[in-house]
Request: fold
Amino acid sequence: MLKIPYAKVSCDGNELVYVKEVLESGWLTTAGKAQRFEELFAEKTGAQFACAVNSCTAALHLGLDALGVAPGDKVFVPAMTFTASAEVIRYMGADPICLDVEYGSSLLTPAILKEAIARHPEVKVLIVVHFGGQAAEMLNVRQEGILALCRQNGIRVLEDAAHAFPASLNGQMVGSIGDVTCFSFYANKTITTGEGGMLTTNDEEIYQRVKLMRLHGINRDVWDRFTSDKPSWEYDVVAPGYKYNMPDINAAIGLAQLERAYELRAARQQVAEYYLSALKSCSWVDLPKLHVAAEEHAWHLFPVILNEGSSVSRNVFIEEMARAGIGTSVHYKPIHRLKYYRDTYALRPGDYPNAERIWQGTVSLPIYPGLSSDDLAYVVESIRKIQARKSVNLLTN
Reply:
């Protein structure tokens, strides 16, 4: 029996070299490596500004603050996302308006958004999630994409791109489309800093606000103050900020990972294409619905949905895969099913039919660089065996 974890980090580049440089520099917190990481990340995404932080959650929080979200405001957020996408709205004292998603892709669509705007014309900010690494339909040739709808209705757009680097849409990189874009470098992402995130924007006013608020609202950069040739201890606090900066050790790992970003993404694509081909004949599995070319997808996740034809429930399937030595995960328990949001906002499953269908059957398969053809064949063979064995049991019982 093979042992195949759900996720595995690839650190085969210059990670040790760059971390050693940081350790030898004597300066371990935010400094030159973080600045360089920001510069190169902005270049990769085509954004004018990038601000490194200690998590994507921090980036989302800072983004909402910079967009002026205030207590009592309402913010659109899709139901199929990690809790961070909703919790940052509550950080601001605002209220989430949960939206259903498209079955198969878990993405917000222009049609769903258009209907939501008609029902909630007071909403002024949208958090759109590029689920699994695939960009939502932000742009289209008819000017009826998510971004155009928001512009027409005075809605600012914050892109939750925790899954979506490097990803693109119609040749434009995610990170340079909406007002603010937030990325994650958690350990299972396409590139990692261990823990960390990045916020990108083309709006200098937003950038300056984010840069100020990420470190206590101090009006001078710490690295600049301590590296100046002149006495420069003086600073002031001009806003009640947060402690969200990225240390140089994390940025050093990120720089090494960034050098290999497209190589790591391509390796994930190979895994995804194997699954798409090998599982397409399995009628009891609904494969991810794709709206972009494989090369534009970041392939952070490969979620399948066990449909009504499956001989096992999602939970039993996960247990059987674990017995076969294969790690899986679930992305996600939707927002409307989480106790806090369900009870606070009286959310009902029937209001989110697509998210409910996804939730009942979704399971994410292993997808990361380093999975061999033997590994992938074993995963697919195990899936087929589980279904076949349970089907036989059903017939004989």
Q: What stands out?
A: The first helix runs from residue 15 to 25. DSSP finds 14 helices and twelve strands in the chain. The radius of gyration is 22 Å. The mean pLDDT is 94.
